[in-house]
Amino acid sequence: MRCDKIWTGARLATMAADAPGLGLVADGVVAARDGLILYVGPAADAPDLDAGETISCEGRWITPGLIDCHTHLIHAGDRSHEFELRLQGASYEEIARAGGGIASTVRATRQASEQDLVDAARLRIDALIAEGVTTVEIKSGYGLTTADEARMLRAARRLGRERSVRVATTFLGAHALPPEFVGDPDGYIDMICTQMLPAIASEGLADAVDAFCEGIGFTLEQTARVFDAAAAHGLPVKLHAEQLSNLHGAALAARYGALSADHLEHLDVAGVAAMARAGTVATLLPGAFYFVRETKLPPIASLRAAGVPIALATDCNPGTSPLTSLLLALNMGATLYRLTVEECLLAVTRNAARALGLSAQIGGLEAGKSCDLAIWDIERPAELVYRMGFNPLNARVWRGQ
């Protein structure tokens, strides 16, 4: 069987959908052709492979390339001053209502050119790539006009062309109320549905649509209107839900078959059940939980009991999670949420792929999927979750290269 490359002498954590646990293989082989996995499994069961190149892994571990399935990587400016205010006792809501929060990043982002946004974000995405990340979701949401949102999404697409990484883009126009619409949130939602989203969709800039359903964001009814507009354009949805309060946004997202509902600290039992029925992924964001010193944990036990898939992501953003290390997010998921090693590793591979609607392409070492690999200098997979501030990546492979 002809292939382009073979990786031999590897220990594998395949994260395959039909494999138990992490899908461990003690002496494994990965073979790739045309950027796709041709064979993965025990060396003893491998077919006769004729490769253009053979790489010996010398006992190293191979996992699927990691997936950061929730980021706000494209933005201008920073909010270090707000960090100081929170240290002095100000709440996230108080800062937002005083004109800070998302609104302050909107002002900075509107003033930035597309090149400015790409240049700033390149440093962030490079930090993720250096840790074995091969797929990154990037949201808009700091422009809040058609032109500014489109510029953010174009910048995100450019990152995907400039770097060897898959970028999934999400339109988050319903992130905050722009200054032009103060006192008129329904008018802004009208503009999203009739102008912004059609323009974004016609240009093919978004792979999904998101919203911030919260007391300082948008209501259930307003979110539903955005979701209806997304459906009219054939775009899947996801939702920032139940971060600061329980507005039952996760249940709404589930009714629309959302790919994921994210944050979820205030998620209730009914919301968990709705997500389980819909197959909606629970994307947990420990960086934000840590950074804003949240004390209410997401309902991990209820999510487990209901069989809701759990993903983890950095939520990289300037205000509540200036985090560009998915490996640190793994450790936070274990220490803050008490997720197991297995849950954490599946959360940034198989379940993260599902949260992006990309399960058929990435997230596991399986024949037919993209040959996205992370090769690690570790003795056991638990090291990826256990260590803090330590990067054991030996090599990263994206689409076979």
Outline the biggest β-sheet.
Answer: 8 strands, parallel
Choose one word for the global shape: globular
- Biggest sheet: strand arrangement: 6-7-8-9-10-11-12-13
Radius of gyration over alpha carbons? Answer: 21 Å
Distance between the termini: 19 Å
Q: Which residues sit in consecutive blocks of at least 5 with pLDDT less than 50?
A: none
The succession of helices and strands, N to C, reads: EEEEEEHHHHEHEHEHEHEHEHHEHHHEHE
Given helix and strand content, the structural type is alpha/beta
* Helix percentage range: 25-40%
Number of helices: 15
Number of strands: 15
Please indicate the percent range of residues in DSSP E strands (runs of 2 or more): 15-25%
**Mean pLDDT across all amino acids:** 96
Topology summary:
Elements: E1 2-13, E2 24-33, E3 36-42, E4 50-56, E5 61-64, E6 66-68, H1 80-87, H2 92-97, H3 102-110, H4 114-129, E7 133-139, H5 146-162, E8 166-174, H6 185-202, E9 208-213, H7 220-232, E10 238-241, H8 249-255, E11 260-263, H9 269-278, E12 281-284, H10 286-291, H11 300-306, E13 310-312, H12 326-337, H13 341-347, H14 350-355, E14 373-376, H15 383-386, E15 393-397
Which features does this protein show?
single chain; alpha/beta; eight-stranded parallel beta sheet; seven-stranded mixed beta sheet; 15 helices
How would you characterize this protein structure?
This protein is of the alpha/beta class and 401 residues long. It has 15 helices and 15 strands. It has helices spanning 80-87, 92-97, 102-110, 114-129, 146-162, 185-202, 220-232, 249-255, 269-278, 286-291, 300-306, 326-337, 341-347, 350-355, 383-386, and strands at residues 2-13, 24-33, 36-42, 50-56, 61-64, 66-68, 133-139, 166-174, 208-213, 238-241, 260-263, 281-284, 310-312, 373-376, 393-397. Strands 6-7-8-9-10-11-12-13 form an eight-stranded parallel sheet. Strands 1, 2, 3, 4, 5, 14 and 15 form a seven-stranded mixed sheet that branches. Helix 7 (220-232) links the parallel strand 9 (208-213) and strand 10 (238-241). The model has no long low-confidence stretch (mean pLDDT 96).
